[in-house]
Amino acid sequence: MDSRSYKILVTGGAGFIGSHTVVALHEAGFVPVIVDNFSNSQPSVLEGLEKITGHAFPFYQIDCNDRDAMAEVFAKEKLHGVIHFAAYKAVGESVREPLKYYHNNLNSLIVLLELMAERGVQNLVFSSSCTVYGQAEKLPVTEETPILPAESPYGNTKQISEEIIRDSVKAGMPIRGIALRYFNPIGAHPSGLIGELPLGVPNNLVPFIAQTAAGIRPELSVFGGDYETPDGTCIRDYIHVMDLAEAHVKSLQWLDQQSGKSLYDVFNVGTGRGNSVLEVIKTFEEQSGMPVNYKIVDRRPGDVIQIYGGVSKARRTLGWEARRGLAESMRDAWHWQQQLGKEA
Fold first, then answer.
1. Annotated catalytic residue, options 101, 133, 154, 308
2. What CATH fold (topology level) applies to the domain 3-188+238-270+310-323?
3. CB-based contacts of 282, cutoff 8 Å, min separation 6
4. Is 49 strand, coil or helix?
5. What mean pLDDT do residues 279-289 have?
6. DSSP character for 173?
7. Residue 102 catalytic?
8. pLDDT number for residue 342
9. Spatial separation of the C-alpha atoms in residues 134 and 306, rounded to whole Å
């Protein structure tokens, strides 16, 4: 069977990472089938995808918790695999509304696993997060780093989701699953046709930087300038979203090469190095030619001081590594912000 006939269900496929993964899947010869309810995305993303790829992919506007609606998708589309992005992801909101996060993030995964088993769909790539590590004592974190108690209900849903997949496989469910523990996705597709599109005030650093440079936000708050880091600001592992998207494709291809009905594994997906908040701001200014008005304010509760990942396992096993650097990420993020400005 040629991979060009392989249909891959992409839940949350109109979101930031999901939409870029749709492009990467298409480029690799797969047929993405998109499910999204637009709770944190917009229909215009589908237009951008069509312009980039020249294809209109199957799309279903449904909630992944709606088992009957999801069952119809599984019945209609002969799926070869699933990439599961659809989840609520705002850390602060999860602290305020934990039940909302536990219900949505865990139930949607359970629905998917049940339908995969019923329909004989084996391959699953799950969108996990480096939040499962908490504030690790030793850096870089590797897949063997102990999992610490989560700092938020959001982080806990990722830990529990990984356990659900692991336990399902251990129980003999015919699932081949991979959990990708991402670090901090940034950037945009180089075309400027899709990118990070936060609804309301951005929760993530780079969209806030870009909106501040564009004059949409008056000032960027940098939370904490007195951490034990070289410049006093928090350090994260920032990865270009297209590198991350390609990791999902490599994961599917690797799963196809595995024999046997059941397996479960986890992989870090990052660059293997960290950048401080001030380094990100400076690189953005260099790449955009625009000043960023920022102010260092008090620390934010729950922020991990620094984290970056060891990525040798993904390189060795999946044949994947990040190819794009911070400068390219900032250049693409600014290009995307400029395109948004033209549409406004």
1. 154
2. Rossmann fold (3.40.50)
3. none
4. helix
5. 98
6. -
7. no
8. 65
9. 10
